[in-house]
Amino acid sequence: MFEKRRKNWKCEYDETVYKIYDWNNNLAGYFYPSYNIQTKSEMEEEEIIVRMNENKEKIHSGHLMVPFLKLDLLDIDYLNIDDAISRLQNSIQRAIVWQKWIENNKTKFNLTQSLVCTSREDRNLLAILFKINTELVLDEKVIVKEITPLLDQLHMDKLL
Asked: Which of 58, 119, 120, 121 is deepest in the core (most CB within 10 A)?
């Protein structure tokens, strides 16, 4: 009788990038539009990006960054070798799950590239950066609507 309430992702523009939040207002990731600006000046580039966002211009791709692996190694003073190996093996298993997920879903979500990097906020965390090739408008509502199916799938598959 009662309809199950759908959980909605949120998006907030913040200085050239879009922050992605889950339904509990937890930061879930970042969307980086591919602005494709050809200019020599950083100040000029910033002005163009601000103007593009104000005018809700179209872009042809962007990158979604979400958490990939929590290493659980680097902020610990001492580990015995067995614990270190166990933690590394857990990380490897999680990375393999991600690898399979990407292979199975890259076409469905127009993912043309997947790169791993360290997180700026947490040195124990690796992030994954998906290049999404799709045309979209620089607007919070449009962006979150476009990436919601991807975020929902990651959440359902317990990767996010």
From this structure: 119
HEC sequence for the chain: CCCCCCCCCEEEEECCEEEEECCCCCEEEEEEECCCCCCCCHHHHHHHHHHHHHCCCEEEEEEEEEEEEECCCCCCCCCCHHHHHHHHHHHHHHHHHHHHHHHHHCCCCCEEEEEEEECCCCCCEEEEEEEEEEEEECCHHHHHHHHHHHHHHHHHCCCC
What value does the mean pLDDT take over residues 104-115? Answer: 95
Q: Model-level pTM?
A: 0.87
The candidate with the shortest Cα–Cα distance to 63, out of 127, 5, 123, is 127
Does the structure show a pLDDT above 80 at 7?
Answer: no
* Alpha-carbon dihedral angle through residues 99, 100, 106, 108, given to the nearest 10 degrees: -150
Cβ burial, residue 21 (10 Å; 0-12/13-18/19+): middle
Closest CA to 39 of 48, 51, 28: 48
Answer whether 95's CB lies under 8 Å from 126's CB.
no
Look at residue 4 and tell me whether its pLDDT is greater than 60.
Answer: no
